Amino acid sequence: MDSEINAAKSEVAVELEALQVMVKELKEEVMRSERESQKWQLMIKLCCFCLGLIIIVTVLGILMFRKTNEQKLLLGY
Predict the structure, then answer these.
(1) Angle at 23 (CA atoms; ends 13, 40), nearest 5 degrees
(2) pTM > 0.70
(3) Largest CA distance in the chain
(4) Which of 19, 32, 44, 56 has its C-alpha lying 20 to 30 A from 25's C-alpha?
(5) Residue 63: its pLDDT value, please?
(6) Distance, CA of 19 to CA of 5 (rounded, Å)
(7) Taking Cα atoms as reference points, which of 48, 67, 45, 44 lies closest to residue 56?
(8) What pLDDT sits at residue 61?
(9) Where are the alpha helices (DSSP H) in the chain?
(10) CA atoms of 49 and 20, how far apart (whole Å)
(11) How far is 25 from 75, CA to CA, in rounded Å?
């Protein structure tokens, strides 16, 4: 009976160790995915900022060149 209890304890210890390793691996995977998620969020923010900047510069350029073309036409007459 004692040998069966000791065998069960050793089986439980092995399974417990395996579960602890699995939990550790899962925690590492979660941390890695959180870092990756934060990196992608930063990249998306950077892309949105660049896109907004490009749109603003384009709109300002169009407005400035439109006024310049109108002035040239007025001076030409």
Answers:
(1) 170
(2) no
(3) 113
(4) 44
(5) 87
(6) 21
(7) 48
(8) 87
(9) 2-76
(10) 43
(11) 74
Average pLDDT on 50-73 reads: 82
d(CA 68, CA 62): 10
CA distances from 72 to 27, 34, 63, 65, 75 (A): 67, 56, 14, 10, 5
- pLDDT digits 0-9 by tens, 15-58: 999 999 999 999 999 999 999 999 999 999 999 999 999 999 99
For residue 30, give both structure tokens: 């979660």
Copy the structure tokens of residue 47. Answer: 């892309």
What single-letter amino acid sits at 14?
V
Buried b (16+ CB within 10 A) or exposed e, 22-39: eeeeeeeeeeeeeeeeee
Q: Which amino acid is at 15?
A: E
Query: Which one-letter amino acid corresponds to residue 64?
Result: M
